[in-house]
Write a structure and sequence with these properties.
Layout: H1 2-5, H2 21-35, E1 39-43, E2 56-62, E3 77-83, H3 93-113
Antiparallel strand pairs: 1-2, 2-3
């Protein structure tokens, strides 16, 4: 449906600890890269991040498959990192939501300007 309407897919992966979210995100990203030049990856987990440093949420543009765990990724293009300041979002949910909103606005702008 999305290909027919030329709409880029937006996928949210959520779940409890240890259920395979990171593995599924890497697999999904790699599948999308099979059909697209780039994938915009928004990492909203400041505690177990896929890119960047602990305490940050990050927006990366990927053009290569993700292989292995987070520390093995080959230098993705980091568009924006926002310092949340904690690895536990429940310590300051209002700040976390503000940081997420800013990062998603940047992602929307980037998506509309990226072929």
């Amino acid at each position: 449906i999305m290909k027919q309407n030329q709409v880029a897919p937006r996928i949210l992966i959520a779940g409890g600890k240890g259920v395979g979210k990171s593995s599924f995100a890497r697999w999904t990203t790699n599948q999308l890269l099979n059909e697209n030049e780039k994938v915009i990856f928004v990492d909203l987990d400041p505690g177990q991040r896929e890119f960047g440093l602990p305490g940050y949420i990050t927006l990366a543009v990927l053009d290569k498959p993700l292989t292995g765990p987070a520390f093995c990724h080959s230098n993705p293009k980091m568009e924006k990192s926002i310092y949340f300041g904690d690895i536990n979002i429940s310590n300051n949910p209002a700040r976390y939501l503000n940081c997420v909103k800013k990062l998603l606005e940047i992602a929307d702008n980037l998506a509309s300007s990226t072929p």
